[in-house]
Sequence to fold (327 residues):
Amino acid sequence: MSTFKALVVESSEPYTVRIRPVSPDELSPGDVRVQVAYSSLNYKDGLAITGAGKVIRSFPLAPGIDFAGTVLESASPEYQPGDKVLLTGWGVGERHWGGLSQQARVKSEWLVPLPKGLSLQQTMSIGTAGFTAMLCVMALEDHHLDRARETLVTGAAGGVGSVAVAILAQLGYKVVAATGRSQESAYLKSLGASEILDRAVLAGPAKPLETERFGGAVDTVGGAVLAGVLPRVAYNGSVAACGNAGGIKLETTVFPFILRGVNLLGVESVMCPKPRRVRAWERLAQDLPLEHLNHMTQIVPLESVPALAQKILEGQVRGRVVVDLNA
Ligand code: NDP
Fold:
């Protein structure tokens, strides 16, 4: 069988990454083989490609926690060659050969058929980050997000943050975008943010309870920022927490929870059950304006990925990065 191209993490010590020809025999097991058209670059991929985090669990392995493409061969009655599919999560790009590869072999139950109204490229413009942003919005809606109050998004200029801002604004919420990059204010306003908040305000010292302001929040940062968000959430409001770009420790008091009934909702996209997964993709096709999606996306070849992986860990990547496996 002919070879194809992939970005491969060869070994952990020394941490060695190469773009090289791969044979289908090297792919992980699964009942569907996919010709990958696009993958996307997420924070976790940054950790995997640089070795800054222990993301890759076996070597050699292609990172890439999501992909979209066309079924090449299938032993599953659910999929036929030629079907367009996408995948996020399930340990792909961690324990299982990932999407930064022109081919992937996966379990059919991990795949989602291409949602109506989206192209393969658009699904990866959304990617794991956008899917997670939608799961955050759905978690807030499940807990009655208050339209009368502002909704906060932290890490707003990043991948999850950008999509969360665009969805919430499209749904009619008044969105406050917290960022450490004031130079991205115009970008965030173009996605629909009504106000920009300096990240340092949230990360600085806070009283156990501050003035009630936000009806809800999507937090992609964690650490000191999340600790600063909780005392500012209004009575019975919720925080959908999905990220840790700003740290894994959370120092707070119980007051937001026991005196204001604030809900801290953990959002996890990797093992998300299929019905909610499919619903989230339907919602993304419906609630995310495509012009905003184009505006927040850069498309790059596989060769650009190692340098961008470093930049994403430094919080220097704006919006979403789509990797074109055929460029
Ligand atoms: P990005 O790097 O695109 O965005 C993260 C943003 O956080 C940055 O753009 C920056 O925003 C802010 N930031 C970065 N570093 C720091 C820092 N040291 N202190 C404070 N803020 C910082 O990553 P993604 O959007 O892809 O992912 C965001 C987070 O969500 C990551 O932790 C990721 O692992 C997590 N995640 C979790 C998922 C889940 O299933 N729970 C799924 C997908 C992602 P700004 O400059 O605007 O302040």
Summary: The first strand starts at residue 4 and ends at 11. The mean pLDDT is 97.
